[in-house]
Every structure is written in structure tokens, then in C-alpha cells.
Amino acid sequence: MRVIEPYERALDDVPGAHPYPRSSRYAEVEIGVHRMPDGTEVRYAKRRLLPRLEDAAEEAVAHTVSSGERPDQLGQRYFGDPGQWWRIADANPVLDPRELTDEPGEEIAVPLPGGFTGGMGGPGVRNG
Q: Beta partners for 68?
């Protein structure tokens, strides 16, 4: 687990420092700018690409879902932050994060801390 130093966390509150906090799944996504006909600039997050699920599985451990578990609880358990549920969702073939924990007894992939980070792009990527 990467611990964000207090001074780094403070940068997340500085307007214009960067558009997303470092803990966000969009923290490393490139920001695009679209210019409207009247000249107004609209900033947007470009597409976030993820490695193939097979590649993600190599950097993950299996977790058997228990009855009543939620994605945020898994984020807290494995990454020390309930907001990091998206790391687990990225490593599994789900569209809705609630699908991760819908079926007790199902085995899901949990990325190793510092392993599969998503958003990198490159050969064999998928949309995320």
C-alpha cells in the first residue's frame, strides 16, 4: 500500500494543482481540451485504458466473496481506503462494481498493492 504523505495530500486541495486527487482512478489520465465555437475551452478526462484482464490476473490474489460484503469494504481491507474499490473492479470483468460482491462464494481478483494500477494503455489494453 502506498501511503500518501500529508504534504502530498494537501496538494489535492490546491485549485489547479491537478484535476483529480492522487487516489482517484483518473489521477494519471491525460486531460484533453475541447474548444467550443465561441472559444470557450472545455477540459475533459481522456479515455482510461486498462491492461487485459489476463495481465491483471498475474498481479492479483484471489478473494472469495462473503455474504454481505461490499466493494468499499474490500477497498478498505486490501488497500486501507474504501475509495480504492475501483482497483478491484478494474481487475475483474464487471461493468457495475456491485457485481463484484453480488454472489457469495464467487472468487474475484484483487490486485496486489503496487501491482496492477490500470490506466497505462499500451498493447493489449481495454477500455475502462
A: none
Give 127: exposed, middle or buried? Use CB within 10 Å, 0-12, 13-18, 19+.
exposed
Could you give the CA distance from residue 106 to residue 126 in angstroms, rounded to a whole number? Answer: 23
E-assigned strand segments in 1-124: 31-35, 41-45, 49-51, 60-64, 107-111
Q: Can you say how many angstroms the Cα of residue 5 is from the centroid of all Cα atoms in its chain? A: 20
Q: What is the pLDDT along the chain (128 residues), one digit of tens a residue?
A: 444 455 555 555 555 555 777 778 877 788 888 999 999 988 888 887 777 777 766 788 999 999 999 999 999 999 999 999 999 999 998 889 999 999 999 999 999 876 655 444 333 334 44
Q: What is the pTM of this model?
A: 0.65
Q: What does residue 33 show for φ and ψ, rounded to 5 degrees?
A: -130, 125
Distances (CA, A) of 98 to 32, 76, 88: 30, 15, 11
